[in-house]
Amino acid sequence: MKYITFNHQNTSAIGIGTWHLGEGNQAQTEAEMQAIRYGLDHGINLIDTAEMYGEGLSESLVGNVMKDYHREDLQLISKFYPFHATPELIKTSLKASLKRLQTDYLDLYLLHWRGDTPLSETIFGLEQMVQTGLIKNWGVSNFDLADLKELSNLENGQNCRINEDLYNIGSRGIEYSILPWQKQHDMSFVGYSPFGSDGSEYLNIKPVIKEMAQAKNISVHQLLLAWVIRNHDLLSIPKTGSVTHMQSNLAAIDVQFTEDELRLLDKYYPKPTQEPSLETI
Known about the structure:
Blueprint: E1 3-6, E2 9-12, E3 16-17, H1 26-41, E4 46-48, H2 57-66, E5 75-80, H3 87-101, E6 106-111, H4 119-132, E7 135-141, H5 145-152, E8 160-166, H6 178-184, E9 188-192, H7 207-215, H8 220-228, E10 235-236, H9 243-252, H10 259-268
Parallel strand pairs: 3-4, 4-5, 5-6, 6-7, 7-8, 8-9, 9-10
Antiparallel strand pairs: 1-2
Helix pairs in contact: 1-2, 1-9, 2-3, 3-4, 7-8, 8-9
GO molecular function: oxidoreductase activity
Protein name: NADP-dependent oxidoreductase domain-containing protein
Domain NADP-dependent oxidoreductase: 13-268
């Protein structure tokens, strides 16, 4: 396993995303749990979930897996709804998530996206949870540059450890200003949906992707994931519902690109040349 510095910690090159996990029948849920176990047994040390995922079903699945591992060896991220972003509701949501996850604390607790609650109130509530020891640190998700700047100018806003946005070869907008800004402010970045979500329905797989994957003797999904983590400076959290898929993700960590290959991909999937609107799924 290769590791990166994420959230000031030594973290596996990829994490485990859990959107839609735990929502199927018993056999499917067991297969998903086996996939997570396989990843943890092979060096992955971060899991990302949220109260929104299956309205708690994902967290419950993760909790059933994590109880068999040493909690201090893993980083656990969960997220709360924007309509739970007041100090009182943050505490209520957090305690419910902790119960489902069968743990005493979260390593990171994130505002899933912005809502109507003033950020100052949300920060106050999150800082309270840090002080109680129920979370170690906090962050945000689906924030654009203006959101991040606003956050950083508020009291304790600089304590935000991570921002989690959409990032894949077809959605590169964060490269223009968000990623550089976060690096400058020592804020780790998480990219979700490296495959364009389920079935790549949000990502146009052009022939160059298939041709390059075939030439490198890897799958399209492995190429897409390898591209996202190519610079070893951010975390990607692919969702994994089977051991076979997890094995594929782990193998993608070792895939490398030549400069010519990267230039070719840039030609068909260009870098942003101006500030884009933030893409979300």
